[in-house]
Amino acid sequence: MFRHRSLDRPVEAARRLTVGRLTLEVAGGSVVGHHYPENFDVLHVDPELPLAAVADGMGDGEGSRAAGATAIATFVERIHAGWPAVGARELRAATAETQLRVRQVGAGLAGLTGCTLTALVAEPDGGQGWLVQLGDSRAYRLRDGLLELMTVDHTMAWLGVLHGWWPANSPEAARARYQLLRYVGHPDKPEPDVLAVPLRTGDTWLLCTDGVSDQLGYHQLRDLLAERDPAQVARTLLTATLNEGGDDNATAVVIRIHPTVPTPR
Questions:
Q1: Residue 70's domain is classified under what CATH number?
Q2: CB 257 within 8 A of CB 230
Q3: What phi, psi does 30 have (nearest 5°)?
Q4: What are the pLDDT digits (tens) for 228-242?
Q5: Is residue 158 part of a domain?
Q6: What residues does 147 pair with on adjacent strands?
Q7: Phi and psi angles of residue 75, each rounded to the nearest 5 degrees, phi first
Q8: For residue 85, how many other CB atoms are within 10 A of its CB?
Q9: pLDDT, tens digit (0-9, with 9 covering 90-100), for 91-133
Q10: Comparing C-alpha atoms, which of 122, 128, 112, 6 is closest to residue 53?
Q11: Domain limits at 38?
């Protein structure tokens, strides 16, 4: 069993970004867990733009490491280059470029080069957010005490459970969890899900890799996200994954939505 904590990314104090009528308070971090010797997850909490993203490399080799790092760097670069234009067209273009660059990096490596990508970006006026989804990392929203999964897992397990091929807790579903149908680096360069989502004061958003969502149940996630400080929520979530077994790298970004307080004149 590996316990290389040196590759954890500690949760720093939450950052505040004002976007129109809303202020986003954002914090994130990552832990290696007890199973893998390295951390193949990547997260980004942008210091300038209302943008957060997580990626989870596939496997535990050089392709996994390169895919996650390349995907996040490329996607963030494209969002910055196009700002303040952000919408479905721009996000699809950013993801297409991300696919291209990960495929280029993978051409020089043996084995699979691929990763998931889940991102949330707010429009400059704060009136709306956009989710980008490829793979089985996830975005959750806690609103008025109701925790909802806002993304779909692009896995054979999701299809099988949805269509009644097997029970969610069956051995068949467990095996199918590792059969990703869409991801960054896929030979067919599949398009992402791009979802427009309203942003409302009081909402709490969670972007996480499956090291969080597979380890922590619905009610545990809901209760932990109810805490007000995003940095403390992220720390508690990551600690909980370790306490529940730490079977995978675990990464969480927590976003709390506040009203923007007008500056006195």
A1: 3.60.40.10
A2: no
A3: -150, 145
A4: 899 999 999 999 999
A5: yes
A6: 142
A7: -60, -45
A8: 11
A9: 999 999 999 999 999 999 988 999 999 999 999 998 899 999 9
A10: 122
A11: 5-259
pLDDT along the chain (265 residues), means of 10: 57 96 97 94 97 96 96 98 97 98 95 96 94 98 98 95 92 92 97 98 98 96 96 98 96 97 66
Residue keyed to tokens 């896929």:
186
Full-model pTM: 0.95
Q: Tell me how far apart the alpha carbons of residues 12 and 67 are, in angstroms, rounded to a whole number.
A: 25
What tokens appear for 240 in the block?
């909980």
> Per DSSP, which regions of the chain are E strands?
15-19, 22-31, 41-45, 51-56, 117-122, 128-134, 138-143, 146-149, 193-198, 204-208, 250-259
Spatial distance between the Cα atoms of 111 and 50, rounded to a whole number of angstroms? 35
Tokens of 121: 């970006």
Domain count, the chain: 1
- Cα 179 from chain centroid (whole Å): 18
* Residues 63, 69, 72, 74, CA torsion sign: negative
Assigned domain for 95 exists: yes
What are the b/e assignments for 175-211, b being 16+ CB within 10 Å?
ebbeebbbbbbbeeeeebebbebebeeebbbbbbbbb
**Beta partners for 113?**
none
Query: Residue 265: inside a domain, yes or no?
Result: no
The residue type of 51 is L
